[in-house]
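Lecture notes, part 5. Sequence design as translation. It can be helpful to think of inverse folding as translation between two languages: the language of shapes and the language of residues. The source text, in structure tokens, appears below.
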């Protein structure tokens, strides 16, 4: 079986060759090995794109090949996103964007997906958004957190201008900034009025929860039951099973399964164990989604 690193190398080759189907098969192979969407983002796609960057820097590939790899990646990410079952809604909104003249969207889309999985509403603006538009949209949508990705330190002055304008809003959203453009401490030291600097998307989600006052155990029992029900339904339909077949496999009453899937029953641990076994997933996956 190929390691994730080998799969990443195959993905790099397939994507710069414009082989959509082959690129998709590499991702399918990682999924078949049980890799999560976020493991694929971090350990397969990100290193492959870093590889694309270094081939391009050394003149080994054309700009068109770099563009093909990015477009194929964005397509694969749309498909991967569909596999994410978000946690119950937190009722909080994050706006994710790059700044004017920054076309690099893969990183910010990935970070937005971490927030999506955590139950945030996402206002994803993609690339090259003017500062005053970000501020206006934040105000209109009552955004709680603005998340900016910088691909180069040259964007720091624009980011400072954004921070300054956001401070003028009431209430003022929190500002989280990350990306390759601030990986260097010198670049970070020139940023002002930023609530959080981030490099690790999972850490950024935790920090965003902390600064907006969301505790880890925010979800009510009702929300948890709805979430478990949705997870069961998602895995059941992915396996092409109807409720009748799954209830027989798990030795449960069909009507009981139906109310579990609708989040209407306080499902017992033994029923969850039987369902996780029948669906071929761990109990933890069933609970966390
Ligand atoms: C694809 C790509 C492009 C594509 C982008 C297309 C698109 N639609 O996204 C195109 C061809 C347009 C492009 C153009 C350019 N690019 Co370019 N590009 C890349 C490349 C190969 C991959 C970028 C990528 O998607 N990486 C994968 C993602 C997942 O990584 P990431 O963005 O770093 O994000 C991760 C983390 O940083 C973090 N993160 C990111 N944002 C945030 C935000 C928060 C809040 C948090 C918590 C975390 C976080 O989470 C992500 C997941 O771990 C990189 C090479 C590389 N090593 O990355 C160069 C690279 C970024 N580009 C570079 C350059 C120089 C350019 C150009 C100036 C080239 C030119 N001379 O024309 C132009 C600029 C265009 C512009 N105006 O923006 C340089 C930047 C160097 C620098 N830092 O100053 C790089 C590093 C290549 C290099 N080695 O020189 N590029």
């Amino acid at each position: 079986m190929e390691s994730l690193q080998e799969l990443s190398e195959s993905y790099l080759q397939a994507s710069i060759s414009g082989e959509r189907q082959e690129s998709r098969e590499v991702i399918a192979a990682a999924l078949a090995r049980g890799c999560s969407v976020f493991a694929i983002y971090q350990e397969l796609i990100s290193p492959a794109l870093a590889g694309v960057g270094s081939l391009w820097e050394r003149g080994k590939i054309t700009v068109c090949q770099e563009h093909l790899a990015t477009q194929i990646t964005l397509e694969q990410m749309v498909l991967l996103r569909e596999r994410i079952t978000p946690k119950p809604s937190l009722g909080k909104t994050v706006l994710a964007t790059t700044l004017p003249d920054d076309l690099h969207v893969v990183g910010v889309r990935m970070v937005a997906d971490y927030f999506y999985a955590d139950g945030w509403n996402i206002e994803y603006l993609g690339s090259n958004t003017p500062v005053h538009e970000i501020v206006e949209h934040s105000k209109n949508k009552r955004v709680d957190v603005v998340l900016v990705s910088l691909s180069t330190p040259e964007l720091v002055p624009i980011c400072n201008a954004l921070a300054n304008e956001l401070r003028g809003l009431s209430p003022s959203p929190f500002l989280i900034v990350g990306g390759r453009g601030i990986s260097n401490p010198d670049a970070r030291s020139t940023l002002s009025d930023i609530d959080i600097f981030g490099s690790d998307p999972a850490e950024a989600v935790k920090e965003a929860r902390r600064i907006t006052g969301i505790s880890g155990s925010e979800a009510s029992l009702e929300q948890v039951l709805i979430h478990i029900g949705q997870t069961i339904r998602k895995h059941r339909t992915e396996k092409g099973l109807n409720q009748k077949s799954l209830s027989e496999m798990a030795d449960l009453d069909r009507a009981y399964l139906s109310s579990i899937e609708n989040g209407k029953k306080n499902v017992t641990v033994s029923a969850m164990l039987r369902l996780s076994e029948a669906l071929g997933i761990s109990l933890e996956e069933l609970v966390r989604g």
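The translated text above is only one of many valid answers, since several sequences can fold into similar shapes. The first strand starts at residue 93 and ends at 98.
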